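Thread: Newbie trying to understand structure tokens

Hi all, I'm a second-year student working on a class project, and my supervisor (Dr. K.) asked me to get a predicted structure for one chain before our next meeting. I've only ever worked with sequences, so writing a 3D structure as a token string is new to me. If someone could post the tokens and maybe explain what I'm looking at, I'd be very grateful. Here's the chain:
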Amino acid sequence: MTAFRALLIVLWVIIAGYTANVAANHGMGLLQVFFGDMAAMGWPGQFNLDFMCMLALSGLWVAWRHDFSGSGIALGLLAFFFGAFFLTAYLLFVSFSAKGDMKEMLLGETRAA
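---
Reply by user tm_fold:
Sure, no problem. This is what the structure looks like when written as tokens:
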């Protein structure tokens, strides 16, 4: 579990640093570029579509893990819109609240019991 938590921290730092650099050099026009690439029907757009599907699955899993409660849906939306930046922090938090129990981390407290 320690190695997994360390990986989550490293990934979060890399994503945060990379995102800060891109935003500083290219501005905050992510959505225009993201959907523009998809509209162009090229490989960058295919990657973005695939990535958006993964974000949707991540958001649905987070919401499901919280039984689609109000807070679960809010967390799911955060997972969808903020991707790995959110998910790494979420999993790190959950790893501590579940005391390292992977079953609880994946299924949520209610289903793991």
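A couple of things are worth pointing out once you decode it. Residues 2-112 form one domain. The chain has one domain: 2-112. Feel free to ask follow-ups in this thread.
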